[in-house]
Amino acid sequence: MRRRIIAGNWKMNKTIPEALELVRELRLGLKDCANVEVVVCPPFTTLSIVGQEIEGTAMSLGAQNVFWEEKGAYTGEISPHMLRDAHCRYVIIGHSERRHIFRETDEQVNRKIRAALGAELTPIVCVGERLEERQANKTFEVISGQLRGGFASLQSAEMQRIVIAYEPVWAIGTGQNATPAQAQEVHAFIRNWLVKAFDKDTGAAMRIQYGGSVTAENSAALIGQPDVDGALVGGASLKAESFLKIVQAAAC
Ligand code: PGA
Fold first, then answer.
1. CA–CA separation, 31 vs 249, rounded Å?
2. What pTM did the predictor assign?
3. Quick one: fold of 5-251?
4. Kindly report the CA angle at 80 between 107 and 39, in degrees rounded to 5?
5. Which residue's CA is the nearest one to ligand 1's atom 9?
6. Label partner for 218 (CA 20 to 30 A): which of 71, 90, 209, 248?
7. Of the residues 37, 53, 97, 167, which is catalytic?
8. Pocket flag, ligand 1, residue 168 (CB < 6 Å)
9. Domain ranges in the chain?
10. Which helix (H) or strand (E) holds 125?
């Protein structure tokens, strides 16, 4: 049985006081959730303080990006080791905003995944098609290309330490989520791809989150699908009330 995982991607939101307010509300509202893992991914500037605030709770800390080098002259970048130092256990890699706004490639995603694994971080690797790709019936082609490139040269044991997030680009921040059936179709495709590219155990063990306009209202139906193992939540993770409801929906 795969343990569900709900992660909040705060993106470029929350000052230090705002982050503290949110995380304190989450801490108070979080019920015992043995069968669901909860991760918050604040911006770099609040990682450390949020990390201190959630110590000893059921929440884990994640970052939204990482660079692949250990240290050195890479102005503006953050290394896996630095994330560990800030008490991160997870890191989002290859989010569609990074792929599209910052032109991140599958090869860079692959380097980041390998560096994160090397530092004992759990990568949350995002894949997803754009609207025009879906309309041109290229969803599976696009996703398999991202999987092949992102996971190049990785072994089964490494794969089993990774979480995948299927996030259709057209659903992110638009209020138009994939239907549970649309999500399940792609999740099953990804799991099947993992079985073929690696092995049965890897396909069965790996967790695949859905992301893209997940709300307190639609999360139960999405997470209820057999191959959907949780959610990567953007907008609805910025308010304690909605994020807690999503966690609650996954816990039952
Ligand atoms: P959204 O973002 O929930 O606001 O659509 C999801 C994401 O980008 O991870």
1. 12
2. 0.98
3. TIM Barrel (3.20.20)
4. 100
5. 234
6. 90
7. 167
8. no
9. 5-251
10. strand 122-127
